[in-house]
UniProtKB/TrEMBL annotation:
This is 3-oxoacid CoA-transferase subunit A. Keywords: Transferase. InterPro entries: 3-oxoacid_CoA-transf_A, CoA_trans_fam_I, CoA_transf_BS, NagB/RpiA_transferase-like. Pfam families: CoA_trans. It comes from Hymenobacter artigasi. Its EC number is 2.8.3.5. SMART domains: CoA_trans (SM00882). PROSITE patterns: COA_TRANSF_1. GO terms for molecular function: succinyl-CoA:3-oxo-acid CoA-transferase activity.
């Protein structure tokens, strides 16, 4: 069985260069590839196109790459928690392609499955559908959307083995599994790395065939994007 492990994040990101298209897993700040993002920041590569559900927050996640202006274009579905993103968008410094969340997920899944395009009703008749081909099926209009792929896909898993098989935990099983299939080079960072054969095959979410490099992550902050708690009710 092929050993996909690399010794550290520096080795995992070898070959990353200016102008590349990256996919970064996660939903809000849950399940994001923290170590990989920090290394992208350290390397200083620029003119990046980042495909992600969101843009992180100002001082964490992809927001760190926006602060240093390493990102040229964002392809996302929700970006409402990042003031720097808003500033760059309104000033014209950042190209943005806002996509309905389900459409974004399906475009990534399609890209990973080798499907070049598909039809969806989402966005027809709105700005989302401008300059896109449309077609009627069963008396309903659909838009043609293109599959998405990337030079690098960065994902984060709870457990992984040396063959690249991955298990995600809870909400971290969001955009990570589909992005893992859509990168020319998929880099997985994991909280726990075990020898091949130790994971229950029935529990694996991403088969190792999709992963080119895997490494043991460290010092995860796992920040909470929005913490909402119920006010204490004082009993009389």
């Amino acid at each position: 069985m092929i050993d996909k492990t690399v010794p550290n994040v520096q080795a995992a990101l070898q070959g990353l260069a200016d102008g590349m298209t990256l996919m970064l897993g996660g939903f809000g700040l849950c399940g994001i590839p923290e170590n990989s993002i920090q290394e992208i920041l350290r390397l200083g590569v620029k003119d990046l196109t980042c495909i992600s559900n969101n843009a992180g927050v100002d001082d964490f996640g992809i927001g760190l790459l926006l602060q240093t202006k390493q990102v040229r274009k964002m392809i996302s579905s929700y970006v409402g928690e990042n003031a720097e993103f808003e500033r760059q968008l309104l000033s014209g410094e950042l190209e943005v392609d806002l996509i309905p969340q389900g459409t974004l997920a399906e475009r990534i899944r399609a890209g990973g499955a080798g499907i070049p395009a598909f039809y969806t009703p989402a966005g027809y008749g709105t700005e989302v559908g401008e300059n896109k081909e449309s077609r009627e099926f069963n008396s309903k209009m659909y838009l043609l959307e293109m599959g998405l792929t990337a030079d690098f896909a960065f994902v984060k898993a709870w457990k992984g083995d040396t063959a690249g098989n991955l298990i995600y935990k809870g909400t971290a099983r969001n955009f990570n599994p589909m992005m893992a299939t859509a990168g020319k080079i998929t880099v997985a960072e994991v909280e726990e790395l075990v020898p091949a054969g130790e994971l229950d095959p029935n529990q694996i979410h991403t088969p190792g065939i999709f992963v080119q490099r895997i490494y043991q992550g460290e010092q995860y902050e796992k920040r909470i994007e929005q913490r909402t708690v119920r006010e204490e009710v004082k009993r009389q």
